[in-house]
User: Fold these one by one.
Assistant:
Number 1:
Amino acid sequence: MGNLCHFARFDLKPAFRIDLDDLGVRYRKRAREVHPDRFADAGEREKRQVLEESAALNDAYQVLRSAPMRARYLLSLRDGELPLEVTVQDPDFLIQQMQWREELEELQDSADLPALAAFKQRLKAAQERLNDDFELCWQDSARHAEAVRLMRRMQFLEKLNHEVRDLEERLDD
């Protein structure tokens, strides 16, 4: 039970593009099956196994529902664990990051909600382009470096999107 691939936990084939609604349905079904309350009368060993399976299921779900985490996981299945952050090896994207950060600071200073919404849409479009590009190259070993670079870009955009949502909430209050 414990060493199952995240995709196998949900009877899915490893793929970058997955149906998130279907994943949610599969997760809820499996979570009910391994819920610790269902094993209240079980022995200690079985209770521990169920708790471990429940934790592993939750972890797998969190990874698979996030495009950057799913991309990282797919690459790690093939290549083993990847180092966490190396954006300095991507100078073009580093410049783009700086531009986005400056723009976000200006939006925070101006408290311009319509401009923030437009910024958020541009980030979403950039994420979709990264997802499309990653989908095309993640399985190709000759394009491994490109896939890793795209995955790191996806991680940055996800963090930036969290910052945008936080700013939206602060400005809405």
Number 2:
Amino acid sequence: MGSIASAALAITMIAAMLLLIFGFRLAMRPDDRLRGLLMIACGIIFIGNVLIWTL
């Protein structure tokens, strides 16, 4: 795998972790629960995509 592809996967994993962390923080608030759950779903999808590309 080339260096650009490795960097793209690393950036995607960083983005996924940030989405999960801040998604959980937003999901704890009653007024932003839906937005937080959507962020968590997006983070899980990012992680799944990275797993597919690395296998």
